[in-house]
Amino acid sequence: MTPGDFDTYNAQLTGRCALRRKVANNTWLERRGDDTIAVRLHDTDVVTYHRDGRVQLFTGGWLTVTTKERINRFAPVRVWSDKGRWQVSYPVPTAASWGDLDSHPVVPFADGITLHPDGTMSGYPASIDVAVQDRAIAKTRRDIKRFIDGVTPERIITAWENPGGDCLLCRFDGHDSCLADHLREDYFHAHLALRAVKAAGYRNSGVVMSMIYGDAQRGRVDDRLKRSLRKLLVKNLIEGVAVR
């Protein structure tokens, strides 16, 4: 789908759908007055078009694959993740001119970044802010490694045999806000492991969990557990990072 502009989306909001039209799963085109139209994903206006040609981008803190896809689908930009940080290119380069960064500058993503009709951007972070976040990302990577290295066979056995005090958000597949707390508190538990195993895509997570427990009883930490934990933590604590 080629992104439109204010006039394109204004023409789609007519008749019975003058105020609101569904355009994708959990995604609506909504009128915000005479001069503003938004693309709303769940409760966040991820792309906002203004009649004067400005376009604003937001994540609402939900730095997910779906948020990124909706912005790329409905806004005239390319957003992608590079070493844990979202990047933005505008105007969107063609295949032949992608390497021409003078014509297609790349800047770090930030909530509220504004695209202007003349091809310029405003509202992206200063280089000093990016440097600060680079250090934060590096520290998070070290913390993830230390957390996973600290999972021993004894801790696995204890976690599997005593799940009563496990995190409720992990138990019910809640929001990812708890993961940073677990990392900071070195809180390893069975439902965190189960959540990681499920997210890694194993078809029978119960069997995998039993195999991890069996290996722990034999004094080994299953590599599948380490890979699953690393994938879950990196995806949610690093890959989604954007400067705000």
Write the layout of secondary structure elements.
Blueprint lengths: L5 H7 L7 E5 L2 E5 L4 E6 L2 E7 L4 E3 L7 H10 L3 E5 L2 E5 L16 E3 L4 E3 L5 E2 L4 H23 L3 H9 L6 H4 L5 H9 L4 H10 L5 H13 L5 H17 L5
Antiparallel strand pairs: 1-2, 2-3, 3-4, 4-5, 5-9, 6-7, 7-8, 9-10
Helix pairs in contact: 3-9, 4-8, 7-8, 7-9
Query: Could you list the spans in which at least 5 consecutive residues all have pLDDT below 50?
Result: 95-99
Question: How far apart, in Å, are the first and last alpha carbons?
Answer: 28 Å
- Alpha-beta content class: alpha+beta
What does the largest sheet look like? 7 strands, antiparallel
Order of adjacent strands in the largest pleated sheet? 1-2-3-4-5-9-10
Number of helices: 9
Percent strand = 15-25%
Order of helices and strands: HEEEEEHEEEEEHHHHHHH
Strand tally is 10
Mean of residue pLDDT values: 85
C-alpha Rg (nearest Å) = 22 Å
Shape: elongated
Query: How many structural domains can be distinguished in the coordinates?
Result: 2
Word description of this protein:
With 244 residues, the chain is an alpha+beta fold. The protein has two domains: 6-124, no CATH class; 129-239, no CATH class. 42% of the residues lie in helices and 18% in strands. The protein has a seven-stranded antiparallel sheet, covered by helices on one side. A three-stranded antiparallel sheet has the order 6-7-8. A hairpin with a 2-residue loop joins strand 1 (20-24) and strand 2. The two termini are 28 Å apart. 24% of the residues are buried.
